[in-house]
Every structure is written in C-alpha cells, then in structure tokens.
Design a protein that fits this description.
The complex is a heterodimer of chains A (85) and B (226). Chain A is built from 3 helices and no strands. Chain A is mostly helical and 85 residues long. In chain A, helix 1 (2-10) packs across helix 2 (12-32) and helix 2 packs antiparallel against helix 3 (47-84). Chain A is elongated. Mean pLDDT of chain A is 72; it is low at 33-41. By secondary structure, chain B is an all-alpha fold. Chain B has one domain: Up-down Bundle (Four Helix Bundle (Hemerythrin (Met), subunit A)), CATH 1.20.120. Chain B has helices at 3-31, 45-72, 75-106, 115-136, 140-155, 157-167, 187-225. The mean pLDDT of chain B is 87. Classes of the chains: A mainly alpha (85), B mainly alpha (226). Chain A binds chain B through residues 1, 4, 17, 20-21, 24, 27-28, 31-32, 36, 38, 41, 43-47, 49-50, 52-54, 56-57, 60-61, 63-65, 68, 71-72, 75, 78-79, 82, and chain B through 11, 14, 18, 22, 25, 28-30, 34, 36-41, 43-44, 47-48, 51, 86-87, 90, 93-94, 97-98, 101-102, 104-105, 203, 207, 210-211, 214, 217-218, 221, 224-225.
C-alpha cells in the first residue's frame, strides 16, 4: 500500500488524478454558465457545498488508506524488531 | 487464500475502482444534466447514495461475519467483521456529512430530527459502540463476542432506515431507484448513479481486502510475540 501511494505521488498520471480531484469545483463552476434558467436562482448556486462534499468523501477515504499504511508500518517495525531480537 | 493472490485481487479492484471513479467524476461534472429543482447541489447525490450503499453492505458483512463468528469462533471471521465495520464507519461518516451539505440548500437546514436522518445517525453511534465495546472489555475474547452481538443488532437499523421514508412522515426524499414502481430517475442520472455505486463498491472491496490482510498479519505477529 505504501509502495502504491509512493507510485501514485511520483507518477505523472497519478499526480494528475489527484490534481483533478481537487479541480472539480472549478470545472463545475465553469460549467454553470448564464444561459440556464437556474443560473438566475440562488438555489442552484451553492458550488462550495458540492466542492466540500466531494472533498470530504475523498479525504475520508484517504484517511482510511493513511490509517492502513500507518498500521502496516507499525507491523513492519514489530516484525523487524522481533527478527533483530 | 495466500497473500500474493490477495494482493493481486486488491490491486485489480483498486485499478478498476480508480478508473470507475474517474469515469464517475467525468459523468458528474461534464455529462449528466443539472437537476431542474435543486440545481448543481443535486450532484452530491452521486456520492451520497453510493456512500450509504457501501456502508449498508459493510454493516451487512459485519452482521454476517459476527453471526458466524459467534457460532464457529473462527478468529478470521472476527477480523473480517472488524475490517468491514471500519469501512462502514468511514462510508457512514461520508453519508452523514454530505447529506447536510445537500440538505442546507434543498431544505434550508443542515439537519432535522426526522426519522431517516435520526436512524442514520443512530447507525453511526451503534457502530461506534461496536468499537468501544471491543476496546473496553478487559478480556479481548469477551470483547469480540460482545462486539459481534452489537454488530448483529446494529444491522437491524438498516431496513428501518430504508422504510422510514415511506412508513413515517419524512422530509427525506423517497427511494428513486429501489421503489416498487421502478426507478423514477432520468436515464442519464440513473447511469451516473450506477457508475457511482460501482466505483464505490470497487474501492471498498480493494480497501477491505488490504485492511483484512493487514488485520490478519497484525494478529499473526501479535500471537508470535506472545
């Protein structure tokens, strides 16, 4: 898992995917336009709600991955320690 | 199942999951039309529903594995249950946090104590209790058994959450896919939702497999240390 995360951060496509996740609100904002009837309504203009919702979703998944990596690291240390002993 | 096979399975699901997530986000922000009454904020729907879908599946796994664990006493089933409960908590939290962001625009309130929302919050607390019971028991084996009972009781909340919108007076919209008259969604919205369900399911299976393998290794090394 740590290797996969390192791969994701060092790989261009991986980095581009991460950047894309954080660019969605900008895309959504750009898509809104003024031609749609909803453009004049306040109801449809809460872009930041959509941004925060998507950010929360992926940050929580990232948190779970990070927690797993931490646990793996701890196990690795424990195994190394027991081998040394 | 050996570790290299498990790694292959989780990697395959992970790659498919990432591809599905990219397709989902393309569909959500470039393809699917904006809903006429709620506007752009309705796009939260495509992550809100899949997160609850995965949460319900997770807690279903918890109940199933817990039940069989109480019967057979196989530690691997407890490992699977705790892994699924962890995933369930993550996806329930996503559902509970994305809902109010949508509700604030659609209903004008972050939160209301209406049946579905209250039962959904109760589910989160039940599974918080699942972890608390495990950790607070002086005897770990007893803690596992008590947590298994909590896991089984907790799953009973899921059908209540599902029927709460039709049986009780609720502010939450009724089911648009799993309703008796068939899906009431527009075709493109339904397609986007299905991709969302697939993406979240694949990501969950990938992370579940990794976390389950970690849990087994962790337990194995702890036994060796003792």
């Amino acid at each position: 898992m740590i290797g996969f995360m390192r791969y994701l951060l060092t790989n261009r496509i991986g980095l581009a995917s991460i950047v894309m996740v954080f660019c969605y609100p900008a895309v959504a904002l750009a898509q809104s336009g003024g031609a749609l009837p909803l453009g004049s309504q306040t109801l449809g203009r809460a872009y930041w709600h959509v941004f925060v919702a998507y950010a929360i979703a992926w940050l929580l998944v990232a948190f779970w991955i990070a927690a797993m990596s931490r646990r793996l690291f701890r196990i690795e240390n424990r195994i190394n320690k027991s081998v040394d002993d | 199942m050996n570790q290299s096979r498990m790694k292959k399975i989780s990697m395959s699901f992970g790659i498919l999951g990432v591809v599905a997530v990219l397709i989902l986000h393309y569909m959500v922000f470039f393809w699917v039309p904006t809903e006429s009454s709620m506007g752009i904020v309705q796009r939260i729907f495509y992550i809100h529903v899949p997160s609850w879908w995965v949460a319900f599946i997770s807690f279903g796994i918890v109940a199933l594995c817990s039940g069989v664990y109480l019967w057979l006493g196989d530690d691997r089933l407890d490992a699977a249950a705790v892994t699924a409960a962890e995933g369930g908590m993550i996806f329930t939290t996503i559902g509970l946090l994305t809902g109010p962001l949508w509700g604030k625009i659609a209903w004008g309130a972050w939160w209301t104590w209406e049946p579905r929302l209250t039962l959904a919050l109760l589910l989160w607390f039940i599974y918080l209790g699942y972890f608390l019971v495990r950790r607070s028991a002086l005897n770990p084996e007893k803690g596992k058994r008590l947590a298994a009972v909590v896991g089984i009781i907790g799953v009973l909340d899921i059908p209540l959450i599902h029927v709460s919108v039709s049986w009780l007076r609720s502010l939450h919209p009724e089911a648009v896919v799993l309703n008796p008259d068939g899906p009431t969604l527009d075709g493109s919205m339904l397609a986007t939702l299905l991709v969302g369900l697939l993406a979240y399911s694949l990501i969950f299976v990938c992370l579940f497999t990794v976390r389950y393998a970690t849990e087994l290794i962790d337990r194995g090394t702890q036994i060796q240390d003792v």
